[in-house]
């Protein structure tokens, strides 16, 4: 336990100090951390799932509070919670299939989530399964997903349906649950690692010869996407806007040139001038909200507006860990972060012309350096995730596959307890 | 704009009739029903077989061209006694484009002005209308040539040429009868006269443009006579009047700009060039047509040559080098520097023997202008100023003594600077200040001298407002503005252009400067202005563009690619204080990597709420009107 505790604190500190940034890095670290939390969590015979959920929630809450702008962390916490519920449910159904009604009684005193599958019969389980927003039509979609919980169905059913003694059954179930959850989290981590490749595989479907593609700033997903198209012998040109004040576009341009792509580096101000000659805008995202809006690096709203003006498709690449089940409210302010003004102006550069003597109250000069932009869903033409291309209007449904409705709000449970 | 409103009330609303129906009886379709009259003429002229039933009868769109109804300069007395002469198209025109040329003289035929009085030209897109004034004497020879006019043309005439209406009404019936009976020769004569009318229509446009009248008449006359070997009456008479017309027409069409992908012309230009520019190595394919040179390499060389350059005036040379190094930038500053250099030139000028002042000085100025162009492509403001100066030189009477002419020209230049720039800015400031209220948050992009004056003046008036200065790479000119505003005590917020959608929520007005305003209403300005205006438009924040009227230009442009200026690509490659981003070898090693440093972009007119200019606050649609109506004053003052 203390071991996990220090790990958690270390990660929280990193998040707070912005030592780790970027949705992929934070998502991966969060998943690894939660895996160790789960593996070290001691669980009793009753209500193992509830205990796990409690532990993960407690840690997740701290992580989200450490840097709420890193939306991916919250996403991963929710994903892990969903995995636990899912595994629990599948184990229960397996047990139910083996006829014993007594096994389920322990789920009734589940205090963390009172509406958590009050299982009494096979019919009730089926109803509960329906309530988690997983109609059979999307089952096929999920079976492609490595992280989904569809695997343990067959393996568990054989052993449990034998009708062993109650305690032995419980013991094996608890170990089984933990094991399955950790397996699934491992798959989630692997998923985060490989999402670039899965997105890049679709590149040839979207990029063809002699296209002119515009992007802003830098994103690993975009880089791999473009390179994948390049490797398939597509020749096209890329305009890279530099993405002031972080100038990540310079890095992307360097990478692209190293891989032999025709690259032109432009200033951010030239976007409107150049977009009339661009066939497609391909950008990365920081997070995708449930309404299809995108939290993106600063400047992309401008690009999206220019693309809309010239009817240029605006394509957003996002790994599934970036899909957030929340609906944004005032995202420009609430889901944003103001970075250091020193990126724009040197400290002290304007000290000579500012009269600090008379200063009563607010200073004359403000420097605003936001990190993110919000791109509303109407400006986005297409999302390309690791499960394929989707419309902005479909995002809420896609997101429902990854999260269970009980976990959408991580904080609410904590508020009364603290 | 009063006449426009009057006009609207006069015109009865037109009902759009679609479908099969018989046109009203032709005998009744006098002036009262111009739709059917026009279409009837159309039908009869287009289909000689006599099928006058047009299946779909849609009246030509109402002519919204402001130029037709713009108030005339009050100094010009309008006589309504002129005879309107109109020409219908011959049958070879396609029925949809069966254009009728209406010409109504709106100005008295001015004897000093040459045989052609200034006229107005208006072109509709669907129906071509040339409303022009044509010399009554030379062209209106045969009444049989006269024909029914277009509806919109007549609309105007109802207003303008009241007595002429009767004449036309008579002619109307006349033509319709003779229409089908036109012989071939007559038809040819008709075309000739149409051509003349068209040419006459263009006179007005080029009236004020720089040029010497009556030079090289032989060519024009030859061309005219070649065309009219049919020896019709109209053609022979045209010869007299056609000379200035042909020439003027050539002048009128804006000179196509130098395209730098045309290698032969580039070679030619290079031989003449003083500044030995070297081509940048890694050029962007899309911008081959623009000059892209290495920056900074030639400056020391030119400085060294300062005392050797015999033909170049030192003042001009100095200003040129300032352009090259970027010390002088901004439309107004560049224009004033150039004009002051020309003042020096004129002061030191003496006419060489056996030459006339006007010719020689114009040539000299032209050579200086090409030097300036080599240093940095001319801005529209400079182009207009040069046009002004050349026209002033051309207008000097030959009898005037040299010293007198020189003082006149110098005072003219002073006058231009004062009137068109200094006073114009004051007027703009006084207009714009009325749009600033207490509690406003004003956004501006990089630097504009006019906007800066507005902000400072508003602050001096004690208005309570906040300024958001938006800046962009690579020049970061906004910092200069920010420094000056903060020093004044104005509360400022500084952002990069990427963050503009973040800040736009709190902004109440956007003030932008412009390098030029083109006649389709687009704003040609510092790159990024269009982005800012677009975001403001998306957030429903009014965009006010402040621009002196001498920067208006009749050119049109739809995108930022066709005409632009390329800056130093190395400025993009390196970010100060961010060494880890810099490219090895400045990024020139790889064939695949290019840097594009655009200087200007083009903002579509629908982003603009209002253009504040020295003639008042106008919508962008009024720009062509101002260009038309006031250009004469621009050039003649």
From TrEMBL, chain A:
It comes from Trapa incisa. Component of the translation initiation factor 2B (eIF2B) complex which is a heterodecamer of two sets of five different subunits: alpha, beta, gamma, delta and epsilon. Subunits alpha, beta and delta comprise a regulatory subcomplex and subunits epsilon and gamma comprise a catalytic subcomplex. Within the complex, the hexameric regulatory complex resides at the center, with the two heterodimeric catalytic subcomplexes bound on opposite sides. Residues 147-177 are annotated as: Disordered. One of its GO terms (molecular function) is translation initiation factor activity. Gene3D superfamilies: Translation initiation factor eif-2b, domain 2 (3.40.50.10470). It is found in: Cytoplasm, Cytosol. Keywords: Cytoplasm, Initiation factor, Protein biosynthesis. Transmembrane segments: none annotated. It comes from the Eukaryota. The keyword DNA repair does not apply. Its main location: cytoplasm. Belongs to the eIF-2B alpha/beta/delta subunits family. Pfam families: IF-2B (PF01008). This is Translation initiation factor eIF2B subunit beta. The lineage of its organism: Eukaryota, Viridiplantae, Streptophyta, Embryophyta, Tracheophyta. GO terms for cellular component: cytosol; eukaryotic translation initiation factor 2B complex. InterPro entries: eIF2B_beta_subunit, IF-2B-related, IF_2B-like_C, NagB/RpiA_transferase-like. Residues 161-172 have a biased composition (Basic and acidic residues).
UniProtKB/TrEMBL annotation, chain B:
GO terms for cellular component: cytosol. Residues 20-114, 166-274 are annotated as: Disordered. Residues 83-105 have a biased composition (Polar residues). Residues 177-190, 236-267 have a biased composition (Basic and acidic residues). The keyword RNA-binding does not apply. This is Translation initiation factor eIF2B subunit delta. Component of the translation initiation factor 2B (eIF2B) complex which is a heterodecamer of two sets of five different subunits: alpha, beta, gamma, delta and epsilon. Subunits alpha, beta and delta comprise a regulatory subcomplex and subunits epsilon and gamma comprise a catalytic subcomplex. Within the complex, the hexameric regulatory complex resides at the center, with the two heterodimeric catalytic subcomplexes bound on opposite sides. The keyword Transmembrane does not apply. It comes from Trapa incisa. Pfam families: IF-2B. GO terms for molecular function: translation initiation factor activity. It is found in: Cytoplasm, Cytosol. Its main location: cytoplasm. Keywords: Cytoplasm, Initiation factor, Protein biosynthesis. Belongs to the eIF-2B alpha/beta/delta subunits family. Residues 36-49, 191-207 have a biased composition (Low complexity). PANTHER family: TRANSLATION INITIATION FACTOR EIF-2B, TRANSLATION INITIATION FACTOR EIF-2B SUBUNIT DELTA. InterPro entries: IF-2B-related, IF_2B-like_C, NagB/RpiA_transferase-like.
């Amino acid at each position: 336990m203390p071991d996990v505790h220090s790990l958690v604190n270390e990660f929280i500190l990193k998040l707070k100090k912005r030592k780790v940034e970027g949705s992929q890095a934070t998502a991966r670290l969060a998943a690894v951390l939660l895996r160790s939390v789960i593996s070290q969590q001691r669980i009793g015979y009753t209500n193992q799932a509830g205990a796990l959920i409690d532990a993960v929630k407690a840690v997740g809450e701290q992580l989200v509070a450490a840097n709420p702008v890193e939306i991916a962390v919250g996403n991963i916490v929710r994903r892990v919670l969903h995995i636990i519920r899912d595994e629990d449910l599948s184990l229960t159904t397996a047990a139910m299939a083996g006829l014993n009604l007594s096994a389920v009684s322990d789920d009734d005193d589940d205090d963390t989530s009172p509406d958590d599958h009050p299982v009494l019969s096979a019919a009730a389980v089926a109803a509960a399964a329906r309530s988690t927003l997983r109609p059979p039509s999307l089952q096929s979609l999920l079976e492609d997903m490595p992280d989904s919980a569809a695997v343990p169905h067959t393996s568990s059913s054989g052993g449990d349906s034998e009708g062993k003694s109650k305690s032995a059954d419980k013991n094996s179930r608890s170990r089984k649950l933990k094991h399955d959850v950790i397996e699934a989290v491992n798959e989630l981590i692997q998923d985060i690692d490989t999402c670039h490749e899965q997105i890049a595989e679709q590149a040839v479907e979207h990029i063809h010869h002699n296209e002119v593609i515009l992007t802003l700033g830098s994103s690993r997903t975009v880089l791999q996407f473009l390179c994948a198209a390049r490797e398939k012998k597509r020749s096209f040109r890329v305009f890279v806007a530099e993405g002031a004040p972080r100038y990540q576009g310079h890095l992307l341009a360097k990478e692209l040139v190293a891989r032999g792509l025709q690259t032109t580096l432009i200033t951010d101000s030239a976007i409107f001038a150049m977009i009339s000659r661009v066939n497609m805008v391909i950008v990365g995202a920081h997070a995708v909200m449930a309404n299809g809006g995108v939290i993106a690096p600063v400047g992309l709203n401008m690009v999206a507006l220019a693309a809309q003006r010239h009817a240029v498709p605006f394509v957003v690449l996002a790994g599934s860990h970036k899909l957030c089940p929340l609906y944004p409210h005032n995202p420009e302010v609430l889901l944003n972060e103001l970075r250091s003004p020193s990126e724009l102006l040197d400290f002290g550069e304007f000290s000579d012309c500012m009269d600090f003597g008379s200063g009563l109250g607010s200073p004359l000069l403000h420097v605003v350096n936001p990190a993110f932009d919000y791109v509303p869903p109407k400006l986005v033409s297409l999302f390309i995730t690791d499960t394929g291309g989707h419309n902005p209007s479909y995002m809420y449904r896609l997101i429902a596959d990854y999260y269970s409705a009980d976990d959408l709000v991580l904080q609410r449970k904590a508020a009364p307890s603290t | 704009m009063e006449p426009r409103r009057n006009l609207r009330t006069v015109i009865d609303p037109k009902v759009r009739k679609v479908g099969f129906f018989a046109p009203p009886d032709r005998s009744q379709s006098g002036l009262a029903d111009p739709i059917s009259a026009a279409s009837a003429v159309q039908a009869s002229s287009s289909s000689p077989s006599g099928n006058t039933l047009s299946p779909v009868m849609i009246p030509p769109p109402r002519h919204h061209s402001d130029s037709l109804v713009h108030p005339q300069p009050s100094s010009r007395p309008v006589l309504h006694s002129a005879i309107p002469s109109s020409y219908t198209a011959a049958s070879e025109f396609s029925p949809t484009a069966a254009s009728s040329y209406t010409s109504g003289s709106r100005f008295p035929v001015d004897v000093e002005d040459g045989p052609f009085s200034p006229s107005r030209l208006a072109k509709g897109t669907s129906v071509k209308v040339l409303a022009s004034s044509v010399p009554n004497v030379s062209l209106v020879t045969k009444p049989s040539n006269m024909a029914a006019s277009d509806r919109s043309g007549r609309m105007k005439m109802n207003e303008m040429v009241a007595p002429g209406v009767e004449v036309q009404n008579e002619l109307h019936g006349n033509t319709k009868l003779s229409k089908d009976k036109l012989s071939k020769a007559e038809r040819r004569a008709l075309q000739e006269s149409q051509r003349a009318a068209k040419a006459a229509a263009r006179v007005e446009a080029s009236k004020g443009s720089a040029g010497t009248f009556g030079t090289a008449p032989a060519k024009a006359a030859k061309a005219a006579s070649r065309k009219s070997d049919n020896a019709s009456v109209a053609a022979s008479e045209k010869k007299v009047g056609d000379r200035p017309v042909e020439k003027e027409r050539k002048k009128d069409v804006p000179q196509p700009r130098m395209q730098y992908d045309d290698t032969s012309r580039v070679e030619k230009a290079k031989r003449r060039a003083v500044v030995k520019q070297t081509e940048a190595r890694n050029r962007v394919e899309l911008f081959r047509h623009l000059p892209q040179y290495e920056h900074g390499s030639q400056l020391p060389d030119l400085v060294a040559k300062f005392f050797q350059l015999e033909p170049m005036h030192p003042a001009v040379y100095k200003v040129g080098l300032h352009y090259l190094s970027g010390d002088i930038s901004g439309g107004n500053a560049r224009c004033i520097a150039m004009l002051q250099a020309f003042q020096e030139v004129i002061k030191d000028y003496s006419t060489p023997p056996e030459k006339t002042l006007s010719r020689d000085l114009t040539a000299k100025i032209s050579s200086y202008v090409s030097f300036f162009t080599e240093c940095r492509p001319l801005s529209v403001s400079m182009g207009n100023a040069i046009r002004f100066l050349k026209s002033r030189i051309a207008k000097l009477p030959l009898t005037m003594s040299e010293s007198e002419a020189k003082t006149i020209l110098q005072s003219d230049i002073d006058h231009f600077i004062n009137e068109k720039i200094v006073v114009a800015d004051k007027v703009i400031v006084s207009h714009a200040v009325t749009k600033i209220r207490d509690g406003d948050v004003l956004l501006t992009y990089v630097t504009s001298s006019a906007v800066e004056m507005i902000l400072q003046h508003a602050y001096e008036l004690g208005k309570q407002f906040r300024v958001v200065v938006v800046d962009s790479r690579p020049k970061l000119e906004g910092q200069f503005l920010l420094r000056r505003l903060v020093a004044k005590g104005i509360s400022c917020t500084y952002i990069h252009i990427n963050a503009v959608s973040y800040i736009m929520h709190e902004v109440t007005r956007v003030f932008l400067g412009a390098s030029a305003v083109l006649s389709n209403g687009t704003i040609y300005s510092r790159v990024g202005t269009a982005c800012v205006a677009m975001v403001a438009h998306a957030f429903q924040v009014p965009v006010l563009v402040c621009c002196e009227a001498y920067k208006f230009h009749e050119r049109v442009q739809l995108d930022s690619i066709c005409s632009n200026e390329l800056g130093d690509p190395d400025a993009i490659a390196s970010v100060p204080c961010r060494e880890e981003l810099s490219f090895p070898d400045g990024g020139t090693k790889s064939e695949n990597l290019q840097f594009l440093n655009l200087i200007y972009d083009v903002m579509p007119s629908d982003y603009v709420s209002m253009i504040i200019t020295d003639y008042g606050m106008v919508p962008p649609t009024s720009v062509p009107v101002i260009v038309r109506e006031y250009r004469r004053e621009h050039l003649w003052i």
